[in-house]
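Troubleshooting: if your tokenizer reports a length mismatch, compare your output against this known-good record of 313 residues.
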Amino acid sequence: MARLYVEEWSPEYGASVDTDESLAPSEGEVDVTVEQASPWHPVDGVDDGFPAIAFVDGIRRVDARLTIDDPAVGPTPGICGSFAAGAAVWRREPLATDVEAVRVQRLAIFTGGATAELPELGYGLSYEIESVAESDPGLLISHFHTQMRRTEAEIALELARSGYFVVADGPISELAAESVVGYIKSHRVSYLPQDVMPIMARLEPGQRTPLFGMPSYKRYSWYQRLSRPAGGHSWSGVVRCEAPQSLGLERAVVLANRTAALLPRFRSEPHIDPRAPQNLVPIGALERQLRARLGDRDLIYRALRAATMGVPV
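Known-good structure output:
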């Protein structure tokens, strides 16, 4: 029987199940037989004692909208944006969490292949100048976000090669190291066919679904439950994780078992984080530190306004 629930996430963050109506089906091919044949049953996580987990994430901010005003060709839009990326590293012995590998980058991006140097801003501010070939202003944010994701990927790969188990916030489109797992905390589509969908209601904290293959994306994926919030629906407290298919099934199963066992201990609580429980505590703490590294938004905006007012390009 279908039932009605109020989402636990605060409304300004959308919802953990973020769709217009019911959970939309995925358009990609999915192989649900790679680990278990149907009917599926929940799989218990396994804590294998891995000594350190690096949670990698990034945040971005548009500092100002720009316009190159050329009477001969009309206005050319642009943006000034800042992003920061880094890792919150949890260590088992001695028990501690530290922020590491933080990188801050500032970009001034223009459309239509245009460029314009920014005057001296002061306060140690400096923006790298980039452009997109197309004239569509909507591509400015897309390009900006892509640059942040590339920086996150570089940090994740470096930490994985240094021996950390890496949980990267978001899909693993550019992450291919052996110890990197992509962590997706909200759901816009369902990757599961209807015949295995009932498993979602059966998952308990610390359990996961069997792995399923996503051949078109060259990934393995699985769902797991962090917690069962009071009054929650069958997808409450559920996240999806990914690992590259190049690992092979045996290695991917080890990573899936590890995440199922360990990630519930890092779940957040509603009084701490409005995206609880999916926004993990180390990621939330990392976001706060990264936001501070971006600097004061109002001060930066005033510096940009003062330095660029009517400056010829």
